[in-house]
Amino acid sequence: MEIPQEVLSVMKKAKKIAVLTGAGISAESGLITFRGKDGIWEKFDPDEVATPGAWKKDPLKVWEFHEEFRKAIAEHEPNPAHFTLAEIEKSSDDFTLITQNIDQYHQDAGSKNVIELHGNVWRVKCLKEGTVSVNKDVPMKQLPPYCSCGSMLRPDVVWFNEPLPPAALENAFKATYECDLMIVVGTSIVIYPAAMLPSFAYEHGAKIIEFNLEPTPISHLAMFSFFGKAGETLPEVWEKAR
Ligand code: BV8
Fold this sequence. Notes:
It is built from ten helices and nine strands. With 242 residues, it is α/β, with parallel strands linked by helices. 40% of the residues are buried.
């Protein structure tokens, strides 16, 4: 695989690294992505399972959709791409990992400074008290699950047309504005506001390095795009850069 020397020196010299990941980084773990051939949205209609309206109409159907996610995530594990990002963090003074993923594979692979823009599949939220707790039962003991206060629990994930967690969004934009290198891995860059981050980083003078199977709407901003499986390309590039 061609690895331009300039890319290696940018990775070596970067002072503040921000990383943006999407479902593609978990593809080689065995998790299906959202879009493209055999994607999740080919099987499920997001309006039926991933919006506040869907929840209002049929919370059980939404929970059944998320139960599938939880089961798949529990049956698989992080892959070399996740572990490589944890290695890069260890060797960097200032590193922020911004993920759109809800599978917690980054933390499971050892990443520490992780911003979850779209929530986390292992957390549930009480509709009445607003409290968030961890629930890793697979399968769930009851669907839909209920809080001890008697109110229904919802997945602590961000559905379409729901606001992202304000603190996560603020921290993600801060890291994006301050970084001198943004590494973008496995995202189709179609979901907002996450999709804005690479362009914002670029406008603030950051270099962009992309890892994907194919070009995306930000490939033209990247100093280089590594087209291939992130579980192979990212470890290979890091092996040479570190
Ligand atoms: C909000 C949870 C406002 C589901 C998800 C501005 C312009 C246009 C539209 C909007 C806009 N602002 C808001 C919107 C609406 C909407 C939106 O962006 N719509 C799109 C369709 C245009 N955004 C929202 O609704 C957001 N909310 O803005 O609210 C608001 C404010 C205040 C008050 C009220 C409202 C919420 C967005 C989050 C939605 N939730 N998922 C669930 O779990 O229940 S989105 C879903 O897409 C996932 O979270 C996923 O992470 C995310 C992004 O997808 P990707 O991660 O990129 O995955 P994808 O499958 O698309 O791509 C995979 C990529 O990997 C591909 O490029 C592929 O080539 C690559 N790949 C595959 N294999 C590999 C690989 N690469 C490397 N190696 C491999 N092996």
